[in-house]
UniProtKB/TrEMBL annotation:
Keywords: Carbohydrate metabolism, Cobalt, Isomerase, Manganese, Metal-binding, Zinc. InterPro entries: Aldolase_TIM, Ribul_P_3_epim, Ribul_P_3_epim-like, RibuloseP-bd_barrel. Catalyzes the reversible epimerization of D-ribulose 5-phosphate to D-xylulose 5-phosphate. Its cofactor is Co(2+); Zn(2+); a divalent metal cation; Mn(2+). It catalyses: D-ribulose 5-phosphate = D-xylulose 5-phosphate. Substrate binds at S8, H64, G140, F141, G142, G143, D173, G174, G175, G195, S196. This is Ribulose-phosphate 3-epimerase. It comes from the Bacteria. The gene is rpe. HAMAP family: RPE. It comes from Streptomyces flaveus. Pathway: Carbohydrate degradation. GO terms for cellular component: cytoplasm.
Length: 228
């Protein structure tokens, strides 16, 4: 089970997205936050920018859709070039059907939970997913402080994944930095979205390497990872 670091372009310079994507080419994925000013109180980018980014970088795109009517829009992001598409369960009318459609179109299907949304009601859906995203801040803005109260939820989610023997990635997004990534890894996360911790650094590529090293060191001795 490998650590994955996904820099978030929400913290990048939007006037230089192609260059900013190249600055983190050692990353596993490029995390693309799509916000519609309805599901969350912010507006970022959409399908045309994802299409352009997909042409500008060899790093696969991890699109996180913080939008209403995810059932309608999520498949379009696969068509735009995303390798992974995350929809919020709070915005999906038929999450199982949507996950299957994303997979059928050739991308990894991921489901996100806001901080107040519990994981337990969705235990039976986990087998339909390739990744689950636990938000460690309220979605909508970059640069927020990490919510430590999400760590027990990460642990419970990892326990459910192990219980069912699933090869399911567990992603965390929000306030992930050198100060918080080790706690996330110890709790059970293996995919880490980092925005300002990467793009706010003088050397974004080195920041990616440093975060990866921190998480790998913890995972090597974490109880949840020892059986994998």
């Amino acid at each position: 089970m490998a650590v994955q670091i996904n820099p978030s372009i929400l913290s990048a310079d939007f006037a230089r997205l192609a260059e900013e994507a190249k600055a983190v080419e050692g990353a596993d994925w490029l995390h693309v936050d799509v916000m519609d000013n309805h599901f969350v109180p912010n507006l970022t980018l959409g399908v045309p920018v994802v299409e352009s980014l997909a042409r500008a970088t060899d790093t696969p795109l991890d699109c996180h859709l913080m939008i209403e009517d995810a059932d309608r829009w999520a498949p379009q992001y696969v068509e735009a070039g995303a390798g992974s598409v995350t929809f919020h369960v709070e915005a999906a009318a038929a999450p199982v059907r949507l996950a299957r459609e994303i997979r059928a179109k050739g991308a990894r299907a991921s489901m996100a939970l806001k901080p107040a949304t519990p994981i337990e009601p969705y235990e039976d859906l986990l087998a339909e997913l390739d990744m689950l995203l636990i938000m460690t801040v309220e979605p909508g803005f970059g640069g927020q402080a990490f919510l430590d109260i999400m760590l027990p939820k990460i642990r419970r989610t990892r326990e459910l994944i192990s219980k069912h023997g699933l090869e399911l990635w567990l992603q965390v997004d929000g306030g992930v930095s050198a100060e918080t990534i080790e706690r996330c890894a110890e709790a059970g996360a293996d995919v880490f979205v980092a925005g300002s911790a990467v793009y706010g650094a003088s050397d974004p590529a080195e920041a990616v390497r440093a975060l990866r090293s921190q998480a790998e060191a913890v995972m090597a001795r974490a109880a949840w990872a020892c059986g994998h």
